[in-house]
Inverse folding.
DNA sequence: AGTGATCAGATTTTT
DNA sequence: TCTGATCACT
């Protein structure tokens, strides 16, 4: 391994090399957290610690994947492969599968996603005869989820006076019954929801000392990223696992805790010192991402929070531009002004769209920006929204796979029993459900029950049910002898799904067909990658199982497409966590929006909103712009919310003022745009778009046969062509992972730093 | 089973 | 305002 001291600053180095005992790494935004963690793991392996004794937990698959990749580049494929690295959920689902029998589950248990569990809760509410308008599935779900994450089981829930009181006060005294039925039915279905993966791990370790010890001995070193976002259930798992050896390293930033609303406990990081009194603390305070102005402005915001670990974040980078303020009359104008500002910046500085992100508090705000960007022909990509795996047609196909693997998966059964249409309607299903409840069986087993003959289902319909069950059983048998891809392809064909999709020639129908097609491609890819890991020959069934696990626990944020890189990114602030862009626009800085209306209720919620704003500001490398509208439409009404208190909390010296702009006319975009726009805004909206001209973009026209070269081949002194910036000469290269850069002097005398892995360049000579 | 009408509900959401 | 879910009706 290269010399660590060259790669890390002093504190990072100490944090990376201090391996024994408990460590708390407070990592400010942009402080090289992942880098430190990566080198720490590499360092451990270098010192002879076996990779399989290291457990590294992250919150997203993306983070896990990235880190594994980086580590691979330092310590090699073999070592990195044996690391236990992944999300809490994926790691512990793996362990739960291995130990399933002691938990009363079988190893092929299904993971219910949020939609599955909501639908189960909904049908339970129906079966218990409760009023669905009063017992709202969403609400019940989050109530149950909170209980699970606090390790409160149904009986404890019902016995807990405080909880029951709360429920009674909300006029929902029977949530405990729903909870009880929900847990029972999940068990019957051999299914676990996301919270169960953690809860059951806790139960596993609590009730089986030998198993706990086995994993304590295995995971001699534990690292946890984003520790401020762990919930109680996760915290306890770690505490138990680390009890024996005490080698636990947590990394996080209390200032970036933004998931308390769903159970994350900021106390976990604040109280780390209590759990591990002999801990060592490392504060990464130097921000390598942002300008001084941005870091200082962010500090001025976060200092308004009371409960936090003290640290002094600073940047040694350029002073940088002040935070731009875009003041719009209406929400539409806000969209327009931001689009315009992006246009101006791009044409003036020859930037690419991928350098920009628009962040907002709620997804509902995205439409305004979509419209504005589309009007200006600015390519954009909206993050969030409906994930690929949540689409109905995809869930349908997946349900077939799931049911073949686990016959008791009732949610899948219900989903596909009549898709494609088999003439099995609601009445039949209600009757079957009653039979299943009576016999404490899954729907699948209820069909096979001898008592089905005597229940109210007509013989013709019974035949249909039996045919379906036989069809699934046939494929279950096939799963053992067929490759996962062929299996999925055959079942889609033979079940009639494909035919059904083909018949629909509407635009939406075509896209559904294409989605299923790309699902199949995804399965193929997965199988191929499995086969490539030749030292780990797994059988066909476990490949399907692994695939199902994968898609249950993965989001499609994890598969960013190549061509999305050069688009303006639109996302919520939550989604922006962990990301960085040169230029950040934070929209809707108004009271009731950001902070959101609910946050008036409590100080803790308000402080979370403030941390959220802090996260938003610290995403920017070069410049932040904030915007607000004096009036906007929301829920059909015109609102005048007023400027967000957070805007006033930013130290004035970091904000652009009108005079800043007037004195630097050539540099400004906001106010110039603003003023010119203001003259027009009083006219009807449709004239606006015609009057304001889109600035012309004078991009480099790349050669017709432009084909990007492999960046590994780039050397200093080479002449290259960049897709957008044109020809230039490579002045310097910094190949060090993770963020290898090259500095290029382009022919127009502009000197640019480009990220090797992203820059599309062609080597000329 | 499919369509039209009506009505509620609308923070954030790594898993 | 807009979306989706549900329901009644055919």
């Amino acid at each position: 391994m290269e010399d660590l001291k060259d790669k890390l600053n002093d504190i990072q180095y100490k944090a990376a090399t201090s391996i024994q005992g408990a460590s708390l790494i407070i990592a400010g935004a942009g402080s090289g957290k992942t880098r430190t963690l990566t080198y720490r793991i590499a360092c451990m392996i270098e010192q002879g610690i076996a990779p399989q004794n290291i457990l590294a937990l992250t919150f997203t698959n993306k983070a896990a994947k990235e880190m594994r990749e980086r580590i691979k580049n330092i310590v090699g494929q073999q070592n990195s492969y044996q690391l236990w690295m992944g999300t809490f959920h994926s790691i512990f689902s793996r362990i739960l599968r291995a130990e399933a029998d002691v938990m009363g589950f079988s190893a092929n248990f299904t993971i219910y996603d949020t939609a599955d569990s909501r639908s189960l809760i909904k049908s339970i509410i129906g079966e218990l005869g409760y009023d669905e308008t009063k017992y709202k599935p969403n609400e019940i779900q989050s109530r149950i989820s909170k209980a699970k994450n606090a390790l409160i089981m149904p009986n404890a829930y019902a016995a807990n006076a405080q909880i029951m009181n709360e429920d009674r006060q909300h006029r929902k005294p029977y949530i405990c019954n729903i909870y009880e039925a929900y847990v029972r039915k999940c068990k019957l279905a051999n299914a676990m929801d996301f919270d169960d993966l953690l809860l059951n791990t806790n139960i596993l370790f609590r009730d089986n000392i030998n198993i706990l010890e086995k994993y304590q001995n295995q995971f001699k070193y534990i690292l946890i990223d984003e520790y401020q976002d762990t919930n109680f259930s996760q915290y306890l798992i770690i505490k138990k696992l680390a009890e024996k050896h005490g080698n636990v390293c947590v990394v996080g930033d209390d200032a970036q805790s933004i998931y308390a609303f769903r159970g994350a406990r900021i106390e976990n990081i604040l109280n780390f010192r209590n759990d591990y009194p002999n801990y060592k603390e490392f504060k990464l305070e130097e921000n390598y991402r942002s300008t001084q102005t941005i870091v200082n402005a962010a500090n001025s915001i976060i200092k308004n929070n009371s409960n936090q670990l003290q640290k002094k974040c600073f940047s040694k980078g350029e002073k940088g531009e002040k935070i731009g303020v875009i003041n719009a009359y209406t929400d539409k104008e806000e969209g327009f002004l931001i689009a315009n500002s992006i246009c101006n910046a791009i044409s003036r500085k020859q930037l690419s769209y991928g350098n920009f992100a628009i962040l907002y508090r709620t997804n509902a705000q995205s439409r305004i920006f979509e419209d504005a960007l589309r009007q200006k022909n600015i390519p954009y990509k909206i993050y969030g929204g409906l994930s690929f795996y949540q689409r109905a047609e995809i869930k349908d196909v997946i349900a077939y796979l799931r049911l073949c693997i686990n016959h008791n998966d009732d949610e899948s059964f219900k989903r596909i029993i009549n898709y494609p249409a088999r003439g099995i309607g609601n009445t039949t299903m209600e009757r079957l459900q009653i039979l299943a409840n009576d016999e404490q069986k899954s729907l699948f087993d209820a069909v096979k029950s001898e008592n089905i003959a005597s229940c109210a289902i007509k013989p013709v319909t019974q035949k249909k049910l039996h045919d379906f069950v036989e069809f699934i059983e046939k494929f279950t048998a096939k799963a053992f002898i067929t490759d996962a891809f062929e299996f999925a392809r055959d079942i889609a064909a033979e079940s009639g799904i494909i035919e059904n999709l083909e018949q629909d020639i509407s635009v939406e129908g075509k896209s559904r067909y294409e989605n299923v097609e790309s699902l199949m491609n995804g399965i193929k890819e997965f199988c191929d990658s499995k086969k490539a890991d030749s030292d780990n020959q797994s059988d066909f069934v476990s490949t399907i199982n692994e695939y199902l696990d994968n898609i249950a626990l993965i989001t499609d944020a994890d598969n960013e497409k190549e061509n999305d890189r050069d688009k303006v990114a639109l996302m919520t602030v939550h989604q922006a966590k962990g990301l960085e862009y040169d230029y950040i626009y934070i929209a809707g800085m108004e009271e009731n929006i950001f902070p959101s209306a609910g946050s008036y209720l409590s100080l803790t919620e308000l402080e979370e909103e403030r941390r959220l704003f802090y996260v938003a500001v610290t995403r920017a490398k070069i410049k932040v712009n904030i915007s607000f509208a004096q009036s906007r439409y929301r829920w059909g009404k015109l609102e005048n919310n007023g400027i967000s208190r957070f805007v006033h909390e930013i130290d004035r010296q970091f904000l652009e003022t009108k005079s800043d702009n007037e004195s630097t006319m050539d540099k400004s975009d906001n106010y110039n745009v603003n003023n010119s726009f203001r003259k027009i805004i009083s006219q009807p909206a449709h004239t606006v778009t015609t009057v304001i001209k889109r600035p012309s973009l004078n991009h480099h026209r790349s050669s017709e046969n432009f084909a990007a070269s492999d960046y590994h081949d780039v050397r200093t002194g080479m002449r290259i062509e960049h897709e957008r910036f044109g020809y230039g000469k490579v002045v310097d290269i910094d190949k060090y992972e993770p963020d290898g850069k090259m500095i290029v002097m382009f022919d127009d005398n502009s000197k640019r730093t480009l990220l090797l892995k992203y820059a599309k360049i062609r080597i000329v000579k």
